[in-house]
Amino acid sequence: MRLEQCSPATVAYLGHDVNDAAVRRRVAMFREEGLAVRLGGFRRGDAVPPGGSPDEIVDFGKTADARLVQRALRVLGNVLAPRLVQRTCDGARVLVARNLEMLVLAWRVRRRGQRLVYECLDIHRLMLGSGCKSRLMRWIERKLLRRADLVLVSSPAFAREYFSARQGHDQAVLLVENKVPISQRAARRDEETRAEAEPRASTDTRADTRADTRAETGAGADAQASPRVVIGWFGMLRCRRTLAELARIARADVPDPAAVSGARVEVLIAGIPSQAEFPDFAEQVGACPGLRYLGPYTPAQLPELYAEVDYIWAIDYFEEGLNSEWLLPNRLYEGLAHGAVPIALRRVETGRWLARHGVGLLVDAPEAELPQCLLEATGTRFEAWRRAVAALPTEALFQTERERKAIVAHVMGAAHD
């Protein structure tokens, strides 16, 4: 008698940056669902973080944000000499390629019978231009799309406005939103239980504590009676217009100061700034009154961060009119999961998501509308917004076990077997 043992199916995951938290979350999800995962790809940092065994992460080399020529040369080098890519992909049942550069490498080493999945969670401006480079990149992507078995997107607008309308792709596209892992739902329940026992104070009643803090730093007697509204901007920090806009909102003159008793808006910033966009981010923030930068953070620090804010900034101008119009950012789900009220543009996909779910503060012109709106939205109005956030169904914010299994089934090609 021969005893046989089932071994987990292997997925090769090719990431544009193996240090990226979103890449590691996706790999973790696959592993938690019973798949064996080999991660390979480029890195933005100086080192690859530990991932368990030495064979779990294959380093393709270092690349940098906003240096497309350097990245293209790195990709070309791996196309011509694909030893590291082959090491990642050999024997895998499915190849998952995050972003176009990794799709090129996956196609280069793909063998007969291997399933190819293209994960596209951002549409770079280069893919949307009218010049020769943009047309060439779209042509390459169209050719490879015909060879892909499945496309993963994080927003329905990517499928609708780009893959269908611009690339003519009418094959399988799976929506996988940037939801919070269901394992973090327990932490939210604990917060809700504590809130029921000792309700969180409104913006008005928290003003005394915040005023005391400002008094200790020499803000003066007038500030002691001033309520404070705090906006959080967390995550990947890459939008220069957002920084400028938040700085102006924080120091804005309120149209009718007497109506809000000298209340003020402050901004708490945490995360990793793009070196390409902000070579001196800490210094820039330090020069802006009302803004405070805490530096990078770990997932374990998120509850503490969100406890300090009333609202989360869910506006992005980085690819204004293009990618920024279509995306549903990670901070949307993360902020809501921690009880913050999102601020978003009404006209973009994020605003439409919030409108469908009946939550959030939607604006058309943030600088013109927010200073007065935020400072007047205290007491019962703010608490009504928070109650709407707390009432959101679990599946709107969290990636449930059922959804995770469905995602894995589609990626592995088992959903329609």
Automatic annotation (TrEMBL):
Report the superkingdom from the record.
Answer: Bacteria
InterPro entries, per the entry? Glyco_trans_4-like_N (IPR028098)
**Region Disordered, residue ranges:** 186-221
**Compositionally skewed regions (Basic and acidic residues) per UniProt:** 187-215
- Record domain Glycosyltransferase subfamily 4-like N-terminal: where: 25-168
Against SUPFAM superfamilies, the record matches this protein to: UDP-Glycosyltransferase/glycogen phosphorylase
What is the protein name given in its UniProt record? Glycosyltransferase
Protein species of origin:
Novosphingobium clariflavum
